[in-house]
Each structure stands twice: as C-alpha cells, then as structure tokens.
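Anyone able to model this chain together with zinc ion?
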Amino acid sequence: MIDVSTRAARSLFYTSQAWRILREQALERDHYECVWCREEGKVTTENLEVDHIKELEFYPEFALDLDNLRTLCKECHNKRHGRFQFRKSKKMIEKNFRTDEFWG
Ligand SMILES: [Zn+2]
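re: yes, here you go
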C-alpha cells in the first residue's frame, strides 16, 4: 500500500508518475472543467486541481482510484478543504491544512 501517513509521504505521492498519469486521466474524464462549477451551470477551465473524494490521508487504498478523483477549480477546492472558513476553530483549520493537497 502507498504510504500517505505523513505530509512528507503525501508530498512524495503527488510527485509520483502513477499520480501524474491518473491525475491527467481524471482531468480528461471531467473534460478539464470544475465539476462543482458545472453543477451550478458555470464553466471553469482554469486553475484546475484534482481532489480525492475520500481523502488521501484517511483512505490510502483509494489513492489511485480514478472513481475517487474529481476535478475542482482552485476556488472550489479551497472551499472543499475549508481553507477560507474562518469561523471554524483553529483546530479544524489545522486539520484541514494537514489533509490539504500538496500543490494547492
Ligand atoms: Zn469550481
């Protein structure tokens, strides 16, 4: 199994060739569009990132499962990981930062 137990290990994961290939497949499948924006009738094709639906840190077995990936724009991705939800407690924010994706 892929080691994603630490931030350093996850950083390494995101540089792996296996991830790069799969990430490209996810983008292609989603037509290089943010899937959340699309649900709202918007087309966003810039600043795209690939999100793990079941978070990498907690579900390493789905790390390289295409069905576990979705294309989000940076803005939706930030929303998803709660980076701009300042009302959350500091602990929550730290937790979100820990599960954050490497290139985000
Ligand atoms: Zn979006």
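The mean pLDDT is 85.
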